Amino acid sequence: xxxxxxxxxxxxxxxxxxxxxxxxxxxxxxxxxxxxxxxxxxxxxxxxxxxxxxxxxxxxxxxxxxxxxxxxxxxxxxxxxxxxxxxxxxxxxxxxxxxxxxxxxxxxxxxxxxxxxxxxxxxxxxxxxxxxxxxxxxxxxxxxxxxxxxxxxxxxxxxxxxxxxxxxxxxxx
Length: 173
What we know:
Elements: H1 4-16, H2 22-40, H3 47-72, H4 79-110, H5 117-143, H6 146-168
């Protein structure tokens, strides 16, 4: 996940030829070195997991680079329209995966006698929050850059970890 800003910068350069400032490029070096050290010193390193993480970084970076181009490039879409055009292909890609991995859980949940109307409300609320998150993300993406958004995502991850340490008293080894 921490490699996403560097991956995004590389994709931005490869696809559109845009370059980051020298300062921005230099700021990515410590992050990349940290990921390398963490990967090499991981006791339970698994190449399959590492490849999945790299593929995830590439797809995340690609999403942000292409979204940034759609928001500020030739098309100049607004956040709602971009979400309108991105949602159907996302469903087509994710529906088979969700059906494969989640079908049993969804069926079990839907026929469960302990299911309440609060469960449906929480499901709808989750969708609304996701919609607001995506629109907000595209607004920020249009105002800044794809690399800035991915760096902000890493800051969010650090804050979530810090909150879990404070709230749940998780230990860091």
